[in-house]
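does this look right to u?? zinc ion version
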Amino acid sequence: MSIFCRIDDKLIPLYRVLWVAATPHFCGESECNCEGLYEITLDGGSEPIWARHDEKERLIEQIEDWQQR
Ligand SMILES: [Zn+2]
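got this back:
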């Protein structure tokens, strides 16, 4: 199993993930490109990563598998 999870166009190392949003982003701003996406914060990361629901679910699955090894 890979230590990386692909989110959008990025390969995220599982051990760098600090937290994953449990609910989709909503701020109501018309300019927002992240509406409905899930925020992922990386350890030492300057800006959040935005994942679709299926990407977020797969990331969590991969982290759980990785922790159980
Ligand atoms: Zn927003």
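The two ends are 10 Å apart (CA to CA). idk if thats expected tbh
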